[in-house]
Amino acid sequence: MTRDEIVELFARREAAYARHDIEALTACLSETCVVESPLGGTVQGRAAIAQVYRAFFEGFGDATVSVDDLVIDGDHVVQVGTLSGTDTGGLMGMTPSGKPALLPIVIVCRVADGLIVHERRIYDFTGMLVQIGVLKAKPA
Amino acid sequence: MTREEIAAMFARREKAYEDEDAAALAADYAADAVIDSPTGGVHRGPAAAAHVFDAVFTAFDDIKPRTDNLLVDGDRIAQVLTLEGTNMGGMMGLPPSGKSFRVPAVFLYELRGDKIVRERRIYDFTGMLVQIGVLKARPA
């Protein structure tokens, strides 16, 4: 893929995320794409990845990701952004806390033939759970 | 810097991390460099960088960053790595726990000439604090 094609793919994905459009989001992925995330573990294939998106959007009804930077090197891409949302729907089977979360997030991807074939999400997942009240943390 | 020079610089930095050589690591920063890390907060310049590295090496004298991938996009670098270490020297005023941690991380850099002018480190910092026993977390 050219740099312009990669930039266009990630812009399309950002727009789909803003709409919580799971079909459009998974259309950016290859059929056998693997996604590794703290929330969903390692999942493969569009249907399984759609479930992870669904669980997240059900938990955070107003979730947004603003993209701060895109680092591109051949078929490897690192997207740097800020994730924000409010726990309006409950996450991991918990009662909704109504609390907001705001944190930086990095998504490490490999692309091929116009699509994302591997994606790894890195962020302060434990901190996010503390922010929304799923976990309580205190000094040991 | 060429791609080869950047790769050599980061190989040297990985070795300096393993050698706990704060001075060698700090020498790569420009006088006006801005570094944003969960451990050290936002700090500026080589002297502050060395101070934070010294604190990290005191807390984790076996800290090991293992670079999984290095993306070079002009003067912007994304280092995808795994961080691991053992809390043998205490942290945040607490006695050493002797516990180990292992987290995926991404360090983002911007270069000017052969110096780093901006660095941002993103990883599950809260999870790391829980792993080493500085924080205790439990379901809310």
> What is the name of the CATH architecture of the domain at 3-80 and 106-123 in chain B?
Roll
State the strand order across the main sheet of chain B.
2-1-6-5-4-3
- The mean pLDDT of chain B is 94
Please identify, by name, the CATH architecture of chain A.
Answer: Roll
User: Largest interface by residue count?
Assistant: A-B, 32 and 32 residues
Strand content of chain A: 35-45%
Structural class per helix/strand content of chain A? alpha+beta
Described by the principal axes of the CA atoms, the overall outline of chain A is globular
CATH topology of chain A: Nuclear Transport Factor 2, Chain: A
User: Percentage of helical residues of chain B?
Assistant: 25-40%
Number of helices of chain B: 4
Please describe the biggest sheet of chain A, giving its number of strands, its sense, and whether it closes into a barrel: 6 strands, mixed
- Largest sheet geometry of chain B: 6 strands, mixed
Mean pLDDT metric of chain A: 95
Structural class of chain B: alpha+beta
Number of strands of chain A: 7
> Ranges of chain A with pLDDT <50 over ≥5 residues?
none
CATH class of chain A: Alpha Beta
Quaternary status of these chains? heterodimer
How many helical elements of chain A? 4
Relative strand content of chain B: 35-45%
